[in-house]
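Researcher: Here's the sequence for the chain we discussed earlier.
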Amino acid sequence: MFGHDDNAQVAQSGAADGGMVIPDTAAPTPAETAPAYSAPAAPATEVAAETVSAGAAAPAADAPTTSDDDLIQIKQQALQQLSPLVGHLDQSPEEKFRTTMMMIQASDNQALIKEAYAAAQEIDDEKTRAQALLDIVNEINYFTQHQA
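Model: Thanks. This is the structure I predict for it:
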């Protein structure tokens, strides 16, 4: 028990007489006592979420909670502020296309389709350009089907 490996003794005695090795079930195996993977420490918010999901009482939150309406309002304000600044970003045609598509999808602003299409046409890689053009067609389908 202290300083002795009971599982090793069982393994040796079982192997010596040709029998099957059956580990002592009372003693935990190394796999049971030590995690196979040690993840980095989780941020406090994840720890709190894990505590709540485990059935323990949630710690009192010092920060006020943000409602969905607040988040939507912040998103709309950020999109309005971002729109005139996007042209100042140093982006490749592909990055410009992805940024414009994100803005289209986040704001449902179909007026940006022309900008996304222009950015897609500037993409050098044919495979990437083809995917970008498909994305534009899908966005146009989305807008035209919701108007009917």
